[in-house]
Known about the structure:
Blueprint: H1 2-34, E1 38-41, H2 56-65, E2 69-76, E3 82-84, H3 101-104, H4 118-126, E4 132-137, H5 143-159, E5 166-170, H6 173-182, E6 188-190, H7 197-203, E7 207-211, H8 212-217, H9 220-227, E8 231-235, H10 240-248, E9 253-256, H11 259-267
Parallel strand pairs: 1-2, 1-9, 2-4, 4-5, 5-6, 6-7, 7-8, 8-9
Antiparallel strand pairs: 2-3
Bound molecules: magnesium ion (MG).
Amino acid sequence: MIVIKTIKNMTTMKTKLFMAAALLLAGSQSACAQHATHAVAHRGYWKCEGSAENSLTALQKAYEAGCWGSELDIWLTADGRLVVNHDPHTLDGLEIEKTDFDKVTRSKLKNGETVPSLEAYLDAGKKLAPMILVLELKTQSTPERNAELARKVVDMVKAKDMEAQVEYIAFSNQVGTELIRLAPEAQVAYLNGDKTPAELKELGYTGLDYAYKVLKANPQWIDEAHLLGLTVNVWTVNKVEDLQYFIDHKADYITTNEPVLLLEMLKK
Ligand code: MG
């Protein structure tokens, strides 16, 4: 009886060991698949001749450089339309949230182009597939406008049948959770750096996208995020030693003003 029991225990133990090994192997395989680092051009690739941040040229240049993705920033105008710009003001000082679309889109960027509508930007981006467009929804002045921005961006992406070519990022948790609700299949990452990977998972985010100083101060968050199945993006990484740090620490995406440098480093 004792002998039979011992054999049974040993078999159970062997099964457990086997399962643990299989899980470990599966884990490391999926981790490997997840861990190729991809280059995201921050506001497009604009540090080159004729380009400017968030211009259509910067989008095209990101594609020509071979980036995996190109990031852009989106605001809602006074009359409720969508434009691509980083700052809350245009270069000539118009406050986008308080100015109508027609006027905002006549404002010039540094390269002489005008502020693009999101519609024009998506139309141009669609032709550059499979490059991913990383859509940052800027925090608006009221919760109502945040909700309107999220709804209008998701609707436009859907109308253009580009759901598989975009990912969303936001500093505002209100905007982020609204995106998760409106587009449950979409990739949505949080930018603000003040939530743990477990908190983001709980809220329904698919990834984190944190400032490099935040991730350097909390390097365990990269592995924690991966174990939870979250992606890790990091911004805005421009120096060789910082780029190398996040390649070595297996960030999934690096958002950079130096995509050509990063792409060269990734070839090695
Ligand atoms: Mg941005």
